[in-house]
Structures are given as structure tokens and as C-alpha cells.
Amino acid sequence: MLRLFAVIALLIFSSASAKAEKINLTADEKVEWHQNEQKMVAVGNAVATKKDMNVRADKMTGYYTSGKGQKSAITSVHAEGGVVATTPTATAYGDTLDYDLSKEEMILIGRPAKIKTATETITAEEKITYYPKEQKAIARGNVMAQNQENKIRSELMVAYFEKNAQGQLEIERVEIFDQAQIDTKSATAYADRGLYLPKTAKAYLYDNVKITQDGNVLYGDKAETNLNTGISKLVTKGKGKRVSGVFKEKSSSKPKQEQSKKQ
Q1: What SS3 class is residue 82?
Q2: Which residues contact 248 (CB under 8 A, 6 or more apart)?
Q3: Fold of the 112-248 domain
Q4: Mean residue pLDDT across the chain
Q5: Which residue, 52, 55, 131, is CA-closest to 93?
Q6: What does the pLDDT look like over 146-190, one tens digit per residue?
Q7: How confident is the model at residue 250 (pLDDT cuts 50, 70, 90)?
């Protein structure tokens, strides 16, 4: 199919956190320039690309400002319908994507919104908000972070990123709020809040901690879980408090009739 192509020299990223870059915009159906409204609209498999990001959507609208003697600068981008945003380290999926450059805020909404890296996937039924300047993401609404073996759930998670030796962003830590839950192969842990450190594969849970495993239940104030080994350590706060638990008694494997014959 013949594609329309436009190099949007007017729409320049001029945020403080990124060097100014031109955005290339293509679409299967049309690319419109609304000069009075100061916007560009791409319809039909619209794709916007710049140095480190590629965004695809059914429709994409870019808003910009311009002044005498000054270069035009993009202020916001709205993408809708089958949104896929790709960077060197992750891919995001959603129904809509709104990027406000003045606020340094990117909002992804979907059913659910999803961000996938090489090792982990994060989904949120409400939205995922990313702040490029702060290198921080906030996920809301039945949030789940998972890899091949473990799942972390809550209503709210805040992820902080940092650059690795190759200059790529990776998750440094994830703060877990509101009904934290960690599922491993061998156990499930619950708490009011928690902290996940991907580099060490350790998760820490705080306040009203409960760990269940094979019908056994442990209660405490703080738990440390190694997601690689599945081993959890439970402790309490202050003097006079103790770790408590309820243990399920194993039933005998021998039938009752066989046991009665030996009596």
C-alpha cells in the first residue's frame, strides 16, 4: 500500500531533558497540516519516529507553538487506536498515549496498559504515567509486574529507572502500595506496602504481612523474599512482639481401615 510521508521539521522536541530532534511521520491514509490550529494529524497506521522512539497508532495528532524569529516547538502528542511505542529497552501497548512536553508527562491508557521489557511485563487497568525527566513511572489500577516465575500485584506501583553501562534505562527499584501481593512458585505473600529491587531479585514487604504456603500461614511485620530461590524471611518490629503462624497438619497417607486392623 502506498504510504504518505512527511518530515515534520516544525515539530521539534525542545524539552530540557532531550536534545532537539526532528520527528518523522508517516501514514497509510493521510497526513494533514492544520496551520490555524497549529497541529499535524496523521491517519491510518500512523507512525512517528525519532532517534530513540517509534510510536505507531491508528491516528496521531501533534500540537505545536510558533513565534516570530523562533523555531516551532511541539507541545503535546496524542495517539489513539492500537498504540505501540518502542524504545531500545522496552515496548508499550495501549489504546491511547498522551505526551505533554511542558509537563514532561506521558500517559498510557489501555485494557490494560502494558509495558514489556526483555525480562519483565507490567500491566495496569487504569493507566501508566511516565515522567522522562525524572525517569519515573506510576502504574495504577490492578497493577501486575511479572517475569517467567513470579508475579507482584498491587493497586499502585511506582518504578524508578537508571541508566546502565550501555546508557540504556533499566528499573532500579519499584515501590509497591495498596494491597501488595507477591506470588512465587512456592508461596504467596501479602502486605500493606512493599519494595522490589530487580537487580538483587529481592522484595521487601511491610506492615500486616502474611505468607501462605501449602496451607500454612505466617504473620509478621516485615518480610524479605528472594524471588530467585522463593525463600522468605519474616520478622517483627520492636520488643514483645513475635512472629506467629498457623500450620496445617499433614493427614496420614494410610487408609483408616488399614490403621484399624493394626490396633
Answers
A1: strand
A2: 214, 215, 216
A3: lipopolysaccharide transport protein A fold (2.60.450)
A4: 80
A5: 55
A6: 887 889 999 999 988 888 887 777 788 999 999 999 988 888 999
A7: low
- The angle formed by the CA atoms of residues 6, 91 and 145, to the nearest 5 degrees, is 155
C-alpha pair distances (Å), 52 with each of 18, 21, 55, 198, 230? 11, 10, 10, 24, 37
Cα distances (angstroms) measured from residue 57 to each of 22, 69, 78, 129: 19, 33, 10, 18
What dihedral angle (degrees, nearest 10) is formed by the CA atoms of 203, 140, 206, 145? Answer: -20
pLDDT at residue 18 is higher than 50: no
Q: 114: which 3 cell numbers? A: 502494558
Backbone dihedral region of 123: left (phi > 0), alpha (psi from -120 to 50 degrees) or beta? Answer: beta
Q: How far is CA 115 from CA 60, 81, 82, 83, 152, in A?
A: 20, 16, 14, 12, 14
What pLDDT, in 10s, does the model give residues 50-79?
A: 777 889 999 999 888 876 666 677 788 899
